[in-house]
Description:
The chain has 187 residues and is mainly beta. It has a single domain, classed as 3 Solenoid (UDP N-Acetylglucosamine Acyltransferase, domain 1), CATH 2.160.10.10. Helix content is 0%, strand content 36%. Strands 1-4-7-10-13-16-19-21-22-23 form a 10-stranded mixed sheet, with no helix packed on it. It has a 6-stranded parallel sheet with strand order 3-6-9-12-15-18, with no helix packed on it. The chain has a 4-stranded parallel sheet with strand order 2-5-8-11, with no helix packed on it. β21 and β22 form a beta hairpin. The protein is globular and about 55 Å long. The mean pLDDT is 97.
Amino acid sequence: xxxxxxxxxxxxxxxxxxxxxxxxxxxxxxxxxxxxxxxxxxxxxxxxxxxxxxxxxxxxxxxxxxxxxxxxxxxxxxxxxxxxxxxxxxxxxxxxxxxxxxxxxxxxxxxxxxxxxxxxxxxxxxxxxxxxxxxxxxxxxxxxxxxxxxxxxxxxxxxxxxxxxxxxxxxxxxxxxxxxxxxxxxx
Length: 187
């Protein structure tokens, strides 16, 4: 069973997982798939061809449009924006939308804009107000307009400092290897 505030609209045909909480004034359209233990803040819109996996947190005033997939543990900050049409025209509406993938554990800051057709990597961090116009690497920290890499972050959220292509998180002790703009966890 999930919880939805009485002010929210859940259309018939939406699939919502166990222990998900949907707060005030949300609208979940038919066909939307929302996993278990998610939290949708006030005034969240979820379109019908959206897949939201488990443990996702979407803050207030976010619209998740057709073509967006949010993997486990994604965080969407207040009023961040997803797009799904790179050339919108009111006079020429489209039925097929450009896909956007946000991988496991990624965080998107308040007011950030994600231009469609890109992938936000595992445990990446998009800073508040950033405008993403290209793929974001796993563990990258991106900020600015357009978004650019300014650092790297551990899965736990601590900054990573690389020496000779290797880093160890000071908090959780995970180890990472970096080559060019690619970071991966090592054992």
